[in-house]
Structures are given as structure tokens and as C-alpha cells.
Amino acid sequence: MAGDPLATDGGQAVDFHVNVDHAVGYACRVVRKVRSAGLTVLVHSRDTARLARLDQALWTFSVLDFLPHVDAGSPLAPQTPVWLSRETAATGRDVLVLLEDEPVPNCREWFPHFDRVIDIVSADEDDLARGRARFRAYRDAGLAPRRHEIAA
Question: What is the CATH number of the domain that holds 120?
């Protein structure tokens, strides 16, 4: 990955990782990086099919990495470092990774529960347009979105 997706300069920011090759595959790499730093992560998407693809990918994307994950509502969640969720009620993780098409409605209240928020935007033109709309919505909500160009 280009740059360090875990580097921070303080303040409540939303880091947009833009022009990624494949959003789900990139999310797996971000989760691996977060876990290698000893942190916990919540991956959020209201798209059930996208979360199912991520669930499968986390088990299969690397033969060298074990990334245990569960649904945030699972009884195993307290012992599991990676949570997947369609809901915006889950907290208690260090990093929030967003695989969203639309802005998260309660972002101003929810995002501060996390040390880092990373929004993943693929190189697809439609996804880039949706990412720009989220960027503006988060800025208008008083958050500090930052763009990070990811080299293919």
C-alpha cells in the first residue's frame, strides 16, 4: 500500500483511500495492517452482499495471515479482533473501515468512537463519484476528510 494507512496527525479525520484496485481486496490488506499493529477493527457496510464477499475474502486472501473475524453482534465478538457490521451501533474497536456507497447518516456521533476512520474508494468512475459525495457530506458534518491517493 502506498503510504502508511495507520499514520495519524491528530484530530477527528476521515481518511479516504482513493483509486484502490479492488475495494474488498484492499479492505483485507488494511485489516491485515491494522491487526499487525495490534489494533482492533470494525468493517462497516450496509451492503449485505459486499460484507459477505469481505467475509469470504478475509478467510482466503492470504495463506500466511489469519484474520479472525465475526459479525459485531456475535457472542464471540468480545474475543475477536475484527468485526463486520451493517449497523452503526457497534463501537469498541480502534479503527473503522468503511465500504459504503452513501454517507453514514450518524457519522458525527459515531465516528469519534474510533481512533481512525478509513473510507475505501475504488478506481471505478461511479465509486469515485460516490466517494466525492461522501467526502463533501463528511466535511459538511464538521469532520476532517483527507484524500490519500493509492497507487495501483
Answer: 3.40.50.10110
- Tens of pLDDT, residue by residue over 68-122, are 999 999 999 999 999 999 999 889 999 999 999 999 999 999 999 999 999 999 9
- Condensed to tens digits (0 to 9), the pLDDT of residues 47-66 reads 999 999 999 999 998 888 88
Q: Supply 49's cell numbers.
A: 452482499
d(CA 57, CA 99): 14
Please tell me the total number of residues recorded for the chain in this structure.
152
Q: Is residue 103 part of a domain?
A: yes
In which residue are the cell numbers 465516528 written? Answer: 111
Backbone angles phi, psi at 95, to 5 degrees: -125, 140
Helix (H) or strand (E) run with residue 66 in it: none
Cα angle vertex 67, ends 61, 70, to 5°? 110
